[in-house]
Amino acid sequence: MPRKSPVEDEVVAAVARLLRRGLPVTPATADAALLDLRGIVARAADPADEASRTAALDGTLRGLLARFPDTRYASAARALFGLPPAEPGQNLTVRRNVAAEQAGHESHHFRKRVEPKLIEKIAWELLADAERFTRSALIAPRLAPAVGRQPIQADPFAWEVAEHEEQLSRLWSAIYAARAELLAVERLISLQADRMDILRTAVTAAWRWAAARAEAISYTTAFASDLESSADELVALAGWTPALTAAQASRLTEAAVGGASREQFVAALHDETGLGNAWTHGFLARPTSPENTPDEQNGQLS
User: Fold this and answer.
1) CA–CA distance, 302 with 296 (Å, rounded to integer)
2) % of the chain at pLDDT higher than 70
3) 93/103 Cα distance (integer angstroms)
4) Taxonomically, which superkingdom (predicted)?
5) N or C, where is the chain less crowded by C-beta within 10 Å?
6) CA Rg value for the chain
């Protein structure tokens, strides 16, 4: 195994210290090595406020544990940090016992052999998250309560600035709307929901994703032609999507341009059975839902 860097060692040690009390993270248990990670700072409503970064760290850890990549030890990792199947208020010894049971190991073996690896995995996931934020050219703008009306001066420069903020807000609104629907699809698949419910939600996700891509193209063309990130890299922030060819991605985008409604989007793609299959079957064929095998029905976007 490659030697860890000092930063990695520091983050691993910080996660281990956090484990003593588990979640929720509090200012007393939060470590600067974690609070200063780029992904945590970027998510904080007020990056300069330690309490705000503490809340961001707590939310990030909960999301990480909810999507823990090792399915065998996912429940054990959650229990170790005080999330279900553990119960609130349980001390570390009790949580370790619950985690060991979930992992199918004897408690001593779990604490000595498995727990350190889970801590390292969580630390590396936090570092990878920070790296993704470091590489991202754009971060969603933070909002603060308005203390009063802020009229725009009748000046070309002021109009340009306002238009840029308007387009940036539209871009992130579309990206977050797409993310919400992509998460909804994954949640329904995980719940083994009715196939038609999954398909309808997947189509809504396609519409939202295509609208986000259209906004990303519009924004980068007008305001960020020299930006390192392309429109596709920006819309990728919404989350995982089935693999599409460039032509298929363009066709979806065309159907969503101009603020098209879901009904208009579906009507524009009514005869695109192959495209519909590529999108919907891409979700149903994922390993997270092996019992959902795609068939050749419902290939249309509807």
Assistant:
1) 14
2) 89
3) 15
4) Bacteria
5) N
6) 22
